[in-house]
Amino acid sequence: MISILNKLIPAETNLPWLAKVTMLLILVLLPFILSSYGLSLLTKVLIFGLFAMSLDILVGFTGLVSFNHASFFGVAAYTVGILVNRGFENFWLLLIPGIAIALLLAGLLGLLILRSSGAYFLMITLAFGQMLFALAWKWRSLTGGDDDGLPGIGRPEIGLPISMWNEQNFYFLVLILFIGSFLLIKKVIKSPFGKSIVGTRENELRMQSLGYNTWLIKYISYIIAAGFAALAGILYTYFNGFISPQELDWSMSGYILLMVIIGGAGTLVGPVVGAAVIIILQNLISTYTELWPLFMGLIFILCVLFARDGIVGSLLKLYQKKVGEMK
Amino acid sequence: MDSAQIIIQALNGLSYGLLLFLLATGLSLIFGLMGVINLAHGSFYMLGAYVGLAIINLTGNFVLALLGAALILAFVGILVERFFIQRLYKRELDQVLLTFGFAYIFMDVAKWIWGGTPRSLPKPPFLNSSLNILGEAFPVYRIAMIIIGLFVALALWLFLERTRVGAVIRAGVDDQEMVKAMGINIKIFFTGIFALGAFLAAFGGVIGGPIMGAYLGLDFNILVLALAVVVVGGLGTLKGAFWGSILIGFIETFGKVFFINFAIVTIYIAMALILIFKPAGLLGKEESY
Amino acid sequence: MKALEIKNISKSYGGLDVLINVYFTLEQGERRAIIGPNGAGKTSLFNIISGIIKPDSGEIYLLGQNVTRLSTYLRSRLGLARTFQRNTLFNNLSILDNVELALHSTKSDSNIKDILRNWGLWDKRKVIVKELSYGEQRQIEILLALVQSPKIIILDEPTAGMSPMETKTITEMIKSLSRDITVLIIEHDMDVVFNLADGISVLHNGQILCEGSPDEIKSNPLVKEVYLGTDH
């Protein structure tokens, strides 16, 4: 097997509680300070941060560089978008089919692709991802194809007398789901199962010799990651109000992968930082030039060549080195 | 569908398959030797088509465009391999990510230079006619595609089987350590095979230009077909790339006849079946996947 | 019931025969060593026993059960543990993580504490494995196999590359294992082999050349010729 992305930092990465409270406070207070444009960017960062975190379960923790993560994001987005357009309203009930269909898809694809690993795995995921993209493109009666897409989705109806058309309210809905997902993913990572996926990443053969069914471990991890990607996709549908096949394309999968890499694979917080960096950079660069993809490619190359641990990964390494020296 | 149509479609499938072969064989050999899936391989094809078109517009000479585009992109391939991929020697997955970064760059450069409007390459005048096959008109250009594809396949086969360099490449696909033990500088072979792959991809881009044109998005559309070829045929061998290409060419062509809009799905069904029953591909080496 | 039965195992790679009709059995509680020159097929045999590679023909029985078609992890669950010749630990994880993974447990219970204390590793439990010395890593290699409380343990050159002191420690440790555990060991160090083994099988060019007690093997002229004579 080809060695995985980066050498994850396995030691405790727990921040002191003061830092946690500060971060939470910042996230809660920011919407009252930011302009509506800034708030919309922040909402986008949280949605894509969740999306990138879900990919980190695969790339950082399981050691599977998946290239079709956008499939689950997009399929869930379409499912909810289509149902909303057909008159279903309740947000919480809509989460069920949206996430379920992504889990089902992951369960099916996982059977086909998880027999391979490394570059071969990456290639097959890319191929199947593009199949779903092509399907969304061609199946006009359902998806509206490329020109029309699926417009007019509006904002979620959460069953409370709170309007989600208010940007702050919508932000807090996203924030609550983001924090809930973050805690849940963290719990998974710290559980015995989480340990076994890291073990599988580190040394699959050894894990098998220790009696672990590594295929099943990877399979479950793949499905879990798809579930959280689906949640991100659903939130994006409401955020954007519009879906196009582009949401399932390789460029979307790559966009998320870049967030994971630039933030630091295997750190969970890193991908969120990566999402913030990429989204802010994208907005800055796009005001000056239309060549954003060119810059994205350059960032990709520079990251892979020179900053393989990502922002958070490098900081953690530095921190551990310092702690080591102090001892 | 009568027999004449079947023959016409079979010839279409064959020409399309051999076009895919130009692309897939490089992809397959690069993976076999270097362990890298070149995700910018489709970009070389697309850029080949664009550069070819530019040369045709400049000189009006199709053959010149064909060779010029292939050589220019082979040179680009050398630069990419020598100055970027080689820096990550032995880190295959990072190398794949690197090629992915280049795919973004190439896509945007193409958009920047040639804009978003799809272009079409003119057929060379001497091939711009059609033959009568059992009462149906069949373009001579497609026949030329078949001949060129078969010729390239034969040349590659002779190169790999009958030359010393080819022997080293084949040995390298099987066992890199052994090649190194023979005192051969494998890095030069890496650069060479990457450049050859880029050459063939761009060559294919020009050959396929009069049929598929040049447009943004062609890079990944064609890359995915090439990936399907290597999944079906098996990675790392010329034979696998050849028969995989022909098979995918036929499936795509006949899929279009029967399913029109959803032909692409038939390819994935074939891929899924192969992955279930023969995960190393029809002609792949068991260990290579 | 035999602990392990290897029945006519053959394996070849592209025309090269690595193992030819290998046949031997292990009684429960037996300590058996496999010796033979490099390239004799010893590690291939181990990989076939643990299920990492599939034999071309032949069968393997583990505690009376045919496991030839069973995957590695299921064989492990039946009580088979192994060590690897090259270090294949979870190199980026701590000692504690390594042991917890081997125990299928993440609770730092007294069990783990006892084990690590006994091995003198408790104070080092948070050290990342790749930062340990080679000898310590080899020790953990064996520890990981043992903490699974296996019924059969197969050891692939456990003392390779170790200092005489470390070799002695490891040898004593294997020797002190309960007789409930069956041990199959590949070893180059003849002192270790003669010290540990009840029986020895000599593998040469993929075939079992002969079998016998340490004394019989010592005095066997064939063995001297192919192995002892050249290697010592």
Which secondary structure elements does this structure contain, and how are they paired or packed?
The complex is a heterotrimer of chains A (327), B (289) and C (232).
Chain A: H1 17-33, H2 36-62, H3 69-85, H4 91-113, H5 118-138, H6 140-143, H7 167-190, H8 192-202, H9 204-209, H10 214-240, H11 250-263, H12 269-288, H13 292-306, H14 310-326
Helix pairs in contact in A: 1-7, 2-7, 2-10, 2-11, 2-12, 3-4, 3-5, 3-10, 4-10, 7-8, 8-10, 11-12, 11-13, 11-14, 12-14
Chain B: H1 3-34, H2 41-59, H3 62-83, H4 92-114, E1 130-133, E2 136-139, H5 140-162, H6 164-174, H7 176-181, H8 186-212, H9 218-233, H10 238-259, H11 263-277
Antiparallel strand pairs in B: 1-2
Helix pairs in contact in B: 1-5, 1-6, 1-8, 1-9, 1-10, 2-3, 2-4, 2-8, 2-9, 3-8, 5-6, 9-10, 9-11, 10-11
Chain C: E1 4-13, E2 16-26, E3 31-35, H1 42-50, E4 57-62, E5 65-66, H2 72-77, E6 80-82, H3 95-103, H4 110-118, H5 134-146, E7 152-156, H6 164-175, E8 182-186, H7 190-196, E9 199-204, E10 207-212, H8 214-219, H9 221-231
Parallel strand pairs in C: 3-8, 3-9, 6-7, 7-8
Antiparallel strand pairs in C: 1-2, 1-4, 4-5, 9-10
Helix pairs in contact in C: 3-5
